[in-house]
Write a structure and sequence with these properties.
237 residues; alpha+beta; Glutaredoxin; 10 strands; 48% helix
Length: 237
């Protein structure tokens, strides 16, 4: 499918994006996937871990695990979610993904590894040292990556987030994760909620439907909106 691209609108701290990670992996095996970080928890939306956040997130993640089969590790559930010094901030990990892409075309690899670092290992993925270590674990040279990370931080990553928000408005993407097929200049949002936990079926479906008209996403109970995550209709973080 050389003329078809999948645009993936994500946030590194979006639990539903972690739930959809196997779908992203399956998609990458058959067509190019371009990531767009939307900055769900940036600026005033950054959150320090609190008891209230912890209790909400645990309920939220239980639904993600049930629907997707994705594991949530003890390091996250009993470690990070009890670390009241930790801050959930999407900007640094998004900058790391941009840095890896600019350095070696490996932004998607870093995103996948950061999701494991956060949701399984319980690491602080907003910390620069953690980001450099994660990149190094994937074979990226630490000093080169650190320099690239500095170059993608601040104004650069903020500009990327604004570009993503503009793209979301253009394609009528309501939140994270959103998947949009582009074929010959035509952008078609696709619904993925029904494919959670069924990566192989999603790959088969995507291969068959890549050049077809796809019904737009419409499951309001699935995913995170532009500023927060939902566990059910009408319930937001």
């Amino acid at each position: 499918m050389p003329t078809t691209t999948l645009h993936y609108i994500y946030d590194p701290l979006c639990g539903w994006c972690y739930g959809a990670a196997p779908l992203v992996k399956a998609a990458r095996e058959i067509l190019p996937v371009i990531p767009h970080g939307g900055g769900m928890m940036t600026g005033a939306r950054r959150q320090k871990v609190t008891a209230q956040l912890r209790e909400y997130v645990k309920l939220h993640d239980a639904q993600i695990a049930l629907r997707s089969g994705q594991p949530f590790g003890e390091g996250y559930l009993d470690g990070l979610l009890r670390d009241t010094e930790a801050v959930f901030d999407s900007e640094p990990p998004t900058a790391a993904i941009l840095a890896a892409e600019a350095l070696a075309g490996r932004g998607m690899d870093v995103l996948a590894r950061l999701q494991i670092a956060h949701y399984v290992e319980g690491r602080r993925i907003a910390d620069r040292a953690v980001l450099i270590d994660v990149a190094a674990s994937l074979g990226l040279e630490a000093e080169s990556f650190a320099a690239a990370l500095d170059g993608q931080s601040g104004a650069a990553v903020q500009a990327h987030i604004q570009q993503t928000r503009a793209f979301m408005a253009h394609v009528d993407a309501r939140g994270f994760p959103s998947f949009v097929l582009e074929s010959e200049g035509v952008f078609t949002p696709i619904e993925v909620a029904s494919h959670l936990g069924r990566a192989e079926d999603f790959q088969v479906w995507l291969r068959a439907q890549a050049h077809a008209a796809i019904a737009p996403a419409g499951d309001e109970a699935f995913g995170c909106d532009a500023d927060s995550c939902s566990t059910s209709k009408g319930t937001r973080a």
